[in-house]
Amino acid sequence: MHRALDKLAQGLPLSQAEEALLTPIYNFYQTLVAAYAGLPVYSEWAFTIPLSLPRERVIVTGRIDRWYQNNDRLIVLDWKSGAPPRQPQTHLLQMRFYAWALWQYHRGRQPIQAIEAQWVYLDHGHIERVHFEAHELEGATSDWQDLISQMDPNTHQFVPQPQTFAGVPWCQQCHFQQLCPEGKQYHGRHEESDVALQAAGPDLPRL
């Protein structure tokens, strides 16, 4: 679905299979993106952000489905398939991180006043939105530092302790599902996480 939507945004022809996939959601998608016509758009946008922790420096990488720029305000769109979850704002943690990543990227380039994040359930015509002001995103840096520091085996006993955010197990977003006994039940059942973490090392200057 992501590849087909990206081709559609670029005006590229779709295969028969892609056309069949998009037909039920095409009108909704067209109405959605028409609201941002004329704005600079970035699709499948990959980011790499260094983050300093008390004991080390790490690299956070990820990919955002699409974002638009409207002067000093940004709009993030994240495509979702399937039915909306019963729990509202299930993906709030993910969207807060995307907004923070974009805010970090623009620091020193162009001041950003606010970011609106939307997660869009294309085949159900449903949208959830959350609005972040610049001061909220600036304060989020320490939250990510604290969260990632908990993964340091030198200071924490790093054993699987599945936790939840807004009622959703973090295992659903973990790259190590196939290795972790607690995470194996989720392996292959959910879309791979769009965010990853690595320790800064010799490859850092190349990134």
How would you sum up this structure, described in words?
The chain is globular and about 50 Å long. The protein is an alpha+beta fold. Helices cover 27% and strands 29% of the residues. The protein has one domain. The chain contains five helices and eight strands, in the order H-H-H-E-E-E-H-E-E-H-E-E-E. Strands 1, 2, 3, 4, 5 and 8 form a six-stranded mixed sheet that branches. A two-stranded antiparallel ribbon has the order 6-7. The two termini are 28 Å apart. A hairpin with a 4-residue loop joins strand 4 (114-121) and strand 5 (126-133).
How far is the N terminus from the C terminus?
28 Å
- The beta-strand count equals 8
Helix share, percent: 25-40%
Shape: globular
- The helix/strand order is HHHEEEHEEHEEE
Radius of gyration over all CA atoms, rounded: 18 Å
Secondary structure class reads alpha+beta
Helices, by number, come to 5
Report the uncertain regions.
202-207
Averaging pLDDT over every residue, what do you get? 78
Tell me the count of domains.
Answer: 1
User: Which strand-content bin applies to the residues?
Assistant: 25-35%
Biggest beta sheet attributes: 6 strands, mixed
Could you state the oligomeric state of the chains shown? single chain
